[in-house]
Design a protein that fits this description.
The protein has 123 residues and is mainly beta. It has one helix at residues 113-118, and strands at 10-13, 18-24, 28-35, 39-40, 50-57, 60-66, 69-75, 80-82, 88-92, 98-105.
Length: 123
């Protein structure tokens, strides 16, 4: 087992006031974002990676472009977003910090659902 404390993570305060703790591994990345009130991430997309967000605390507005149209949806605690390769941004229009996990990985195209559901051996 390996435990990595937050102080060991790569901690970055982005210009748009998002505090990010990056946990980088060879084949995936997990990071904790704490987005300040009334801030918006820069629009971006990913060419090779797959990004998944999970809202831990607060509300965030997801905005993305699909077929040249901008779409948006409010995300709440427990919501999960797969950005796929869509141009996207996230806006915190509230008076509180929003906390969310981001998982980045390189999709292989293989379906591992059965392994993920059943790979547990009781000791």
């Amino acid at each position: 087992m390996r435990i990595i404390s937050r102080k060991e993570a790569l901690n970055v305060l982005k210009p748009e006031e998002i505090n990010v703790s990056y946990y980088l591994f060879s084949d995936y990345e997990v990071h904790l974002n704490e987005q300040a009130p009334h801030t918006t991430q820069v629009w971006h997309h990913h060419e090779k990676i797959w990004e998944t967000l999970f809202i831990i605390e607060g509300e965030l507005i997801a905005k993305w472009k699909e077929d040249d149209k901008e779409k948006s949806q409010v995300l709440k605690v427990g919501d999960l977003v797969q950005t796929e390769r869509s141009p996207h941004t996230f806006e915190n229009s509230t008076d509180s910090i929003v906390k969310f996990l981001v998982i980045k990985l390189m999709p292989s195209g293989k379906d591992f659902k059965e392994i993920l559901k059943t790979d547990k051996i009781l000791d």
